[in-house]
Amino acid sequence: MTSLQRPDLGKDPQQVSGMFDQVAKRYDLTNMAMTFGLDALWREATTNAVAPQPGERILDLAAGTCRSSASFARRGAEVVAADFSPGMLAEGKKNFGDVRGMSFAEADATNLPFDDESFDAVSMSYGLRNVNDPKKAIAELLRVTKPGGRIVINEFSTPPNRVFRGLYRFYNDRILPAVARTVGSNGEAYDYLNESIRDWPAQHELAEWLREAGWTDVGYKNLSMGIVALHRGRKAA
Length: 237
Hints:
The protein is α/β, with parallel strands linked by helices. It has one domain: Rossmann fold, CATH 3.40.50. It has nine helices and seven strands; from the N terminus they run H-H-H-E-H-E-H-E-E-H-E-H-H-H-E-E. It has a seven-stranded mixed beta sheet, with helices on both faces. Helix 7 packs antiparallel against helix 8 (187-199). It is globular. It comes from Microbacterium amylolyticum.
């Protein structure tokens, strides 16, 4: 394996994309180990929040290995699984390429290659945090959403309980790196991911970013005591 040029919190798109290319093959296994299987529950909650309907067109941005995309498609939606990492998309195609209603696209979140008002719903799980201009990505998601359409963002967040937050930080700083190095394919990648979680704004600030971009009916729901949060909104009709 070629050595990883570790991204920093400037989040250069080429470096971040290259990092995900390198961890793609063991990405799902590593996530399952690091979250003790909670990632499956979070993914189910995301699918329920998106509430895909037969015939709807849905964009799953930062689709990664496309597990959420496949979940949307299995409910009858037409799903575009988009990611800026070709390595991640390759894993998605290998595992879910035969799922009816799925298509795949390489895409930069800050300059989406889709027409205005072309999706009934847009979703992004654990990807907004890795974009170098997240506010621009939120605006792009608004642009490609139909009037009345909806957004769901699932992202790592800040546990509101002070004691639990301290335990969570201890796990991220001391335990998670060891798990990532044991199970994953590149421990340095998960060092970056831990730093990006620590640097990410709390739930109320991300909700405000959505409102500033023009999303309405914005709200969020904490999952697993705020380790992650589901953010939702609508585009004005």
